[in-house]
Amino acid sequence: MSTGKGRERHIPSQFNQGERFAMKEALKVFPTIFKTRFIQHEVIGEYSHLFTVQGSDPSLQPYMLMAHSDVVPAPDEGWEVPPFSGLEHDGFIHGRGTLDNKNSLMAILQALELLLIRNYIPRRSFFIALGHDEEVSGQNGAQKISALLQARGVKLAFIVDEGNFILDGFIPYLKKPFAMIAVSEKGGINLRLQVNMTPGHSSAPPKETSIGILAAAISRLEQTPLPNMFGSGPLKTTLQELANEFPFPANIVLRNLWLFGPLVSRLMERNYITNALVRTTMALTMFNAGVKMNVIPPMAQAIINLRIHPAQTVQEVLELIKNIVADDRVQFHVLTAFDPLPVSPSDHQALGYQLLRQTIQSIFPEVNTIAPGICIGNTDSRHYTNLTTSIYRFNPVYLHPQDFRSIHGINEKISVQAYETQVKFIFEFIQNADTYQEPIPHLHEL
Ligand SMILES: CCCCCCCC/C=C\CCCCCCCC(=O)N[C@@H](CCC(N)=O)C(=O)O
Ligand SMILES: [Zn+2]
Ligand SMILES: [Zn+2]
Question: Which of 25, 150, 158, 165 has the fewest C-beta atoms under 10 angstroms from its C-beta?
Answer without folding.
Answer: 25
